[in-house]
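Repro:
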Amino acid sequence: MKHKEIIIIKEAGDRVDKILSENFPDYSRNYFAKLIKLKLATVNDQPIRSSYILKVNDTIEINFLDQENDQLEPASNIPLKIIYEDKDVIVVNKDPGIVVHPAAGHAQDTLVNALLQYYPQISDAVYDKDSEISVLRPGIVHRLDKDTSGVIIVAKNRRAMHSLSRQIQNRTISKKYLALCLGWPKNQENTLINHLGRSPKNRKLIADIGQEKGKEAISNYQVKKQYLTKSNKKISLIEFDIKTGRTHQIRVQASMIGHPVLGDQFYGNKTSEELSQKLGINRQMLHAYELKITLPGNNKATPFTAELPEDFEAVLKQLASWPADQLASLQAE
């Protein structure tokens, strides 16, 4: 970051990108559109669109990027666990704690930086070479949250990028996750349908905001295993087969049915937080374990699976080691 500026709006009625370019003539309107997209320019501490119309007393906070150094750099210190690779794609098992592409607070420590170190030509795998946003995300066709681990496919060229993106948009791929959740769902399997969008109460969170404003989110779930802790706390290992890819989809839907993902600091409740602390969990226990997609030039979908990370395995071993003599009777409740 170069520096930070804060503006308090005295007169309403103009777009935020227009006001910023007028107040800082050394920078273009497109530059501020980029900052807004990267959430480096916010209004009232909330992310907004470039088209946001400012109101009186709105507070704009701008984190300026150093334009001279605003270039993607390779990074050799980020683990890159490759599951599969050919001339068109790289399939990776992403560790938890790694951001997929550059964003606010993560300019050079992302999966993209690791990919550039491994395969520099990936810098050409962009949708639009004239778009600064696109250039910062070479090869990326889908994402995982920072603290979600698992399988992610990356395009090595523009041809592959368009092929993979088309499948994702048309919902012809399959994505399955494993999550450790609080409690035992009443139904061993079910379909969850919600309409998700930014929460009007807290823009950092996702919520069901209704059919008119929200985007449809569909997940099928199936309980794979049930556990009982020494203190009689119930835990479930649940497989989620998502049919849509909305932001925080599984985490929100799991919380909404009363079974939040353990370690989830945004959508958990007091009980899940206390249990997570006892188990030594400090991130959401959510892992993308299978992706089935058709590789460029192929006619049949190929499944790719990612092994569980060490922290997830460690929690499962704790649970498996605890006595479960009450499990049968409790399952019948």
